[in-house]
């Protein structure tokens, strides 16, 4: 819970153009006062939302889409009334910083092994072997020496967009790099920051047209206790523009699939871009490997989302005012096994094309629909627009439970990543009109 003293953003008893009663928190509000710290797609979506009004500077707000910098500085001394919502949990970094994510996953896996046994713990084998440097340097060296010649990737824990990342195969490469003052500015940072992870490089990624890609998937958490998580149907694959090979480990355009990296490649074509929508990828994989294999792959991904959230469930400070839209980065290997690379607390909403813009608008509109400042939902929904409820203090199953030929019931997970996103039709059926629209 946040402190209720020093209330900088008090919302209590506000009367004005947005008139609603004190006791009436969710129903009957005629407008939502929002604050937005970002200047991109989210700003457009908030502006277009019927009867949402932007507040500037220190104005009182009901809804805040802030950046993590704002959160760090303000969360501790912001009073929030019951109905107020903000787009981050206070210590979101437990999942979204590379070293902490791995630390939490390792602990969770160890506890699972102790309580449930090896087989259950092996369900967490979805993150590449990782060490925090410099603190786990000796453990890392032991592991490194066990498989000579393999490739590792070094990543600064608190940077993003591929900054400061490099691949290596020899220990001397990081020794030299630690000491060598002649290296690039990026690499010199190590001596000062020292917080890196060394991670086993996925040497045999799944390739399409010879190119590596990773997946961006969106997961919305509306509560940690109990855990309530939604999976968005849309997402995309980000391709490298250069054919993959392990013979040149210094080529970032070949090995890093971040759009921010690919965009700077000399032969990058902004018209073609480097993305496939998730639906296109799912169709491609189904045509190539058959439905069953692809369903197994997507089930494995569900497992990654749920287990990674469970790994931080006891660590994240649960707060009913908070929700979080995570951007998961998943890499497939040549056996169609999904690997968790990273979870982002502020997935980029900057569009790379018109199609990308429209997808991000849908995603953000539906995020607002789930958060439901307008009080139009019952709270029992299993689907809201493009979001499917994936976990609600336990697995969520589809309504259409299949009766298998054996006669036993087959429960199917309520997730549809990469499936049709007929959100508008669904929303028309589901939602009451916006409160102000009733009056029109
Ligand atoms: P950042 O936060 O800087 O984007 P990531 O951990 O997401 O850092 O890594 C950037 C890119 O590097 C990923 O999108 C992926 O293409 C590649 N990458 C990262 N870790 C691995 C790994 N263990 N094996 C193979 N490729 C990786």
TrEMBL record:
GO terms for biological process: microtubule cytoskeleton organization. One of its GO terms (molecular function) is ATP binding. Residues 1-10 have a biased composition (Polar residues). InterPro entries: TTL/TTLL_fam. Residues 1-25 are annotated as: Disordered. PANTHER family: TUBULIN POLYGLUTAMYLASE (PTHR12241), TUBULIN POLYGLUTAMYLASE TTLL9-RELATED (PTHR12241:SF39). Belongs to the tubulin--tyrosine ligase family. This is Tubulin--tyrosine ligase-like protein 9. It comes from Acanthochromis polyacanthus.
């Amino acid at each position: 819970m946040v402190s209720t003293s020093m209330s900088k953003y008090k919302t209590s008893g506000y009367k004005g153009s947005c008139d609603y009663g004190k006791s009436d928190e969710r129903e009957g509000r005629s407008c939502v006062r929002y604050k937005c710290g970002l200047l991109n797609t989210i700003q457009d979506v908030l502006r277009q939302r019927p009867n949402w009004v932007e507040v500037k500077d220190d104005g009182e707000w009901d809804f805040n889409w802030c950046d993590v910098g704002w959160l760090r500085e303000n969360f501790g001394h912001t009073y929030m009334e019951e109905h107020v919502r903000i787009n981050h949990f206070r210590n979101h970094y437990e999942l979204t910083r590379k070293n902490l994510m791995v630390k939490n996953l390792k602990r969770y896996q160890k506890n699972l092994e102790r309580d449930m046994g090896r087989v259950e713990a092996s369900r967490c084998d979805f993150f590449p072997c990782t060490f925090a440097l410099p603190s786990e340097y000796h453990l890392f060296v032991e592991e490194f020496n066990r498989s000579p010649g393999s490739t590792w990737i070094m990543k600064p824990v608190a940077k993003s967009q591929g900054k400061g990342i490099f691949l290596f195969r020899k220990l001397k490469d990081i020794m030299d790099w630690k000491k060598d003052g002649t290296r690039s500015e990026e690499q010199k940072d190590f001596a000062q920051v020292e917080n890196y992870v060394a991670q086993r490089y996925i040497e045999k990624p799944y390739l399409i047209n010879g190119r590596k890609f990773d997946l961006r998937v969106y997961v919305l958490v509306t509560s940690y206790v109990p855990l309530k998580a939604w999976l968005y149907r849309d997402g995309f694959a980000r391709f490298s523009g250069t054919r993959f090979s392990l013979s040149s480990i210094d080529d970032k355009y070949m090995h890093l699939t971040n759009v921010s990296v690919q965009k700077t490649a000399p032969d990058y074509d902004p018209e073609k871009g480097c993305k496939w929508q998730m639906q296109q990828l799912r169709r491609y994989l189904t045509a190539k490997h058959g439905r069953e294999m692809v369903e197994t792959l997507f089930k494995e991904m569900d497992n990654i989302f749920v287990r990674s959230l469970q790994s931080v469930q006891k660590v994240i400070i649960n707060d009913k005012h908070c929700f979080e839209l995570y951007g998961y980065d998943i890499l497939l290997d040549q056996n169609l096994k999904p690997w968790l690379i990273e979870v982002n607390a502020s997935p980029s909403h900057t569009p790379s094309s018109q199609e990308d813009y429209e997808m991000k608008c849908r995603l953000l509109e539906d995020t607002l629909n789930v958060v439901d400042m307008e009080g139009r939902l019952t709270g029992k929904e299993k689907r809201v627009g493009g979001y499917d409820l994936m976990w609600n203090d336990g697995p969520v199953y589809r309504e259409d439970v299949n009766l298998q030929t054996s006669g036993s019931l087959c429960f199917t997970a309520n997730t549809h990543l990469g499936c049709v996103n007929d959100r508008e039709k669904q929303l028309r059926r589901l939602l009451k009109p916006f409160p102000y629209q009733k009056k029109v």
